[in-house]
């Protein structure tokens, strides 16, 4: 057998072996199913951010004739608390805004006042006298001027640092005499002055002989109250002598 014949026989033998083993020359094993689709783990969902109560963003209270305007650090209105709101809702909203709970005290009242409930924070009191209307000495009622609650601010900041002011920028403890001059209000200098800061719309008939309209006002009182002077209160009705 010559060399060419031996070479041909060897090639035939190798091809037969490859054919029986399922392999071909020049080819490589194909990828497995596992390699083609690697297993992946889905990312864990991000936790939802906790809702923020807008009342916790309050940084300033503006005292108005029939309401409190609660503002945020940008001066935007967060909410309004009407003095005619239900007492529990009014007090609860203030507690959130101020970051403190009030001290509640039941007061017996006196000759000119009915028994009332006081809710007090440092520098702020909310009064609920549980009355709807107050008659005049003559027996008539000049409008339903008795709102559900009234407020007294004796400090320029209350709670956890919430500032207090009138719409014109006056703060408790400020110069009430200068304020009276700016607003053209009477000033007697006897320690019992009351300065009308802002007055709302009339709510009823004006009393004969009274120069003041029957309307709610924001007032600065100058007599001492719990060690403070020039404190702010609302609502106050000069048209009927009191609220």
Lay out the secondary structure.
Layout: H1 3-21, H2 33-36, E1 60-63, E2 67-71, E3 77-82, H3 87-98, E4 103-107, E5 116-121, E6 124-128, E7 150-153, E8 157-158, E9 162-166, H4 176-183, E10 194-202, E11 215-221, E12 231-236
Parallel strand pairs: 1-9
Antiparallel strand pairs: 1-2, 2-3, 4-5, 5-6, 6-7, 7-12, 8-9, 10-11, 11-12
Note down, in words, how this protein is organized.
- The chain has 243 residues and is an alpha+beta fold.
- It is 18% helix and 26% strand.
- It has 4 helices and 12 strands, in the order ααβββαββββββαβββ.
- It has helices at residues 3-21, 33-36, 87-98, 176-183, and strands at 60-63, 67-71, 77-82, 103-107, 116-121, 124-128, 150-153, 157-158, 162-166, 194-202, 215-221, 231-236.
- The strands form 2 sheets. It has a 7-stranded antiparallel sheet.
- A hairpin with a 3-residue loop joins strand 1 (60-63) and strand 2 (67-71).
- It starts with a helix and ends in a 7-residue tail after the last strand.
- Mean pLDDT is 82; it is low at 1-7 and 139-145.
Summary?
This protein is an alpha+beta fold and 243 residues long. The protein is built from 4 helices and 12 strands; from the N terminus they run H-H-E-E-E-H-E-E-E-E-E-E-H-E-E-E. It is elongated.
Which labels suit this protein?
243 residues, alpha+beta, 7-stranded antiparallel β-sheet, 26% strand, disordered N terminus
């Amino acid at each position: 057998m010559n060399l060419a014949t031996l070479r041909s026989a060897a090639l035939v033998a190798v091809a037969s072996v490859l054919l029986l083993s399922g392999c071909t020359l020049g080819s490589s094993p194909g990828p497995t199913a596992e390699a083609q689709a690697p297993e992946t783990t889905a990312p864990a969902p991000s936790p939802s951010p906790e809702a923020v109560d807008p009342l916790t963003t309050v940084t300033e209270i503006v005292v108005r004739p029939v309401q409190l305007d609660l503002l945020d650090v940008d001066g935007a209105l967060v909410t309004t608390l009407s003095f005619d709101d239900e007492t529990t809702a009014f007090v609860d909203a203030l507690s959130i805004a101020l970051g403190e709970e009030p001290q509640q005290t039941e007061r017996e009242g006196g000759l000119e006042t009915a028994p009332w409930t006081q809710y007090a924070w440092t520098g702020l009191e909310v009064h609920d006298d549980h009355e709807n209307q107050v008659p005049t000495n003559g027996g008539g009622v000049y409008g339903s001027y008795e709102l559900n609650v009234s407020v007294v601010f004796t400090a320029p900041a209350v709670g956890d640092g919430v500032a207090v002011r009138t719409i014109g920028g006056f703060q408790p403890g400020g110069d009430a005499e200068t304020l009276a001059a700016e607003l053209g209000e009477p000033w007697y200098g006897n320690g019992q002055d009351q300065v009308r800061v802002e007055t709302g719309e009339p709510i009823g008939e004006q009393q004969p002989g009274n120069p003041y309209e029957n309307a709610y006002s924001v007032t600065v009182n100058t007599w001492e109250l719990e060690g403070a002077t020039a404190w702010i209160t609302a609502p106050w009705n000069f048209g009927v002598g009191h609220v």
